[in-house]
Task: structure prediction
Amino acid sequence: MNISARPYAAAAAAPSVPAAPSAERSAGAPGFWRAPFAGSTYREIGYTVASLPIAIVGFTFAVTMFSLGVGLFVTVLGLPVLAVALAGARGLGAAERGRARSQLGLDVAGPVAVETPREAGAWAGMRARLSDGAGWRALLFQVVTFPTRVVSFVLSVTFLVTGWVVALLPAYSWVFPRYLDWPGYRVFDYTSGGERHEFYLESPVQIAGASLLGLVIVFLTPKLVRALTNIDRAAVRSMLGK
Result:
């Protein structure tokens, strides 16, 4: 009797390997309850804080160089000034992509280098630089992101400091009656129309209520900061990438 055996496959099918997560996914937002204590949250806050002086420098550079180049455009000097402005904007854009990669977990590939044929002379190289779309987008990036970065700095610092200061009020509420001769934390104290208006957080219920409000702000701050940095993520992707 012939027994036919089913031949085995020469090689087993290789198991599918899931794709490695991108840098942005691996640095995704932490859970709601862990976010106020996560390192990624404070990297994003550090990003918004550092963005203010960087935005001031970038905005000043972009506006000054562009205005100077346009003002000198009637002469030959305007063209090299604009070429330098675009080259500098590319350099600032590369630095911004590096910041986004290290602090926001966003890895964006940079644009291709400007082709400047050496054999055609300096004028051809300058013309290639002036027709560089990536350079113009990088220059515009410094102008467009300036107001949003000012707002991001103000909101992130305000919410971060206010949240923790109010949340920790029970830990230092004893300081006010002991050293400042206040019955508690002074919310307001002013005189209007000859009548004095004042309000202090002095009872345990008031202090606990204020602390609870502070905790709400603490847990909402990472959400706010993530929304603010998402504006920068979108700007980096659309204006500083390929």
Q: What stands out?
A: Residues 103 and 149 are 15 Å apart (CA to CA). The chain is about 65% helix and 5% strand.
